Fold this protein.
Amino acid sequence: MCDTLAIVRSGGVLFAKNSDRDPNEAQLLDWQPRRTHARGARVQCTWIEIPQVAETNAVLLSRPFWMWGAEMGTNEHGVTIGNEAVFTRVPYAKSGLTGMDLLRLALERAATAADAVRTVVDLLEEFGQGGGCSLEYPHRTYHNSFIVADTRTAFVLETAGRHHAIEEVRGARSISNGLTIPGFAEQHSDFLKTRICGCRSRRPRTQALAEHAAGPRDLARILRDHGADDAPPRYSRINGGLGAPCVHAGGMLASSQTTGSWISELRPGSLRHWATGTAAPCTGLFKPVAVDQPQHVGTPTERADEDSLWWRHERLHRAVVRDPLRLGPRYFGLRDELEAAWFVDPPDSSAAFAEAARALASWTDDIAGQSVADRRPRFVKRYWARRNAWAGLDLSARRGAVAAGV
């Protein structure tokens, strides 16, 4: 599950997205340079192979580690896209291009938002969409909607199988895990699945907040929102924390975790992007990123490791959420101060990532050493104990080691 929003104004476009997926599905930042391709070349996407184009743009992607496609990203021209899972009454194909594949292909092949929309529609009509889209549940699939933005405009593109509808964004616009374009939504939406995924509460919240957002710092607050100002995550037995934009896993019928977050400020002559490269934006740090400034973030999998940025942050995230009202304030002020400066005057990405790495290590040592009770509901604690075991992540051992000065 996910939430994406865009705000179109005379001076440019603001864009933001939370990517909500399986809790152990590490999501990495992936820099791909501009490339030329031989005549007749083909590209292997997540499930199917299609013809390649003569030249592909340089792109920066935020993608689940096991997919070819991406949840969100941008290209050298400033085209920036986020996608959403949507549930429709149109039959799901067993194979095809995933929504994430369509997103990456559009970024690699288009120079404007309008071109990117046409690229997605053409690929959708030729190859269809389909195939498994989940690490934890390999046969789970869905259809997709997108916000496609550049420095001047943005579009909502919604799909149901090979059908589609397009709406140009005026002012603020958010999308979530349900169809929204009038007529198209009534014709194709699956009411029950759309309700269970929580978008009926998340989308009105992000829409209302987006209408008052003025810049990147406001977008960060939206992506960290738990449904009320300064509130901790709230959990439902049915769908965990899917009732608010900053999603925390723990439900019995539907459960997702925000595994990556992205913010863009797109103006003619000025492309600025910030990404966490980590899960749980409420515990993470937005760092300045650029298409031409690749950083080492490791090569994560579903198993915990010490090298990748995503899993190093998980040690902090999964410790903080035990009692966020007590543990979060130990470093949130320092994080917000650092981030606020980066939103106003972003430093070189290498310098920012180095400073972020030092901060993450310090914050993790402090938080992991705190002896606190886990205040989450029992069903949530059971849910996360299983995921920690699957990932080989022993938080209790880590806390003991830090407390002992190891």
Summary: Confidence is low (pLDDT under 50) at residues 398-406. The radius of gyration is 20 Å.
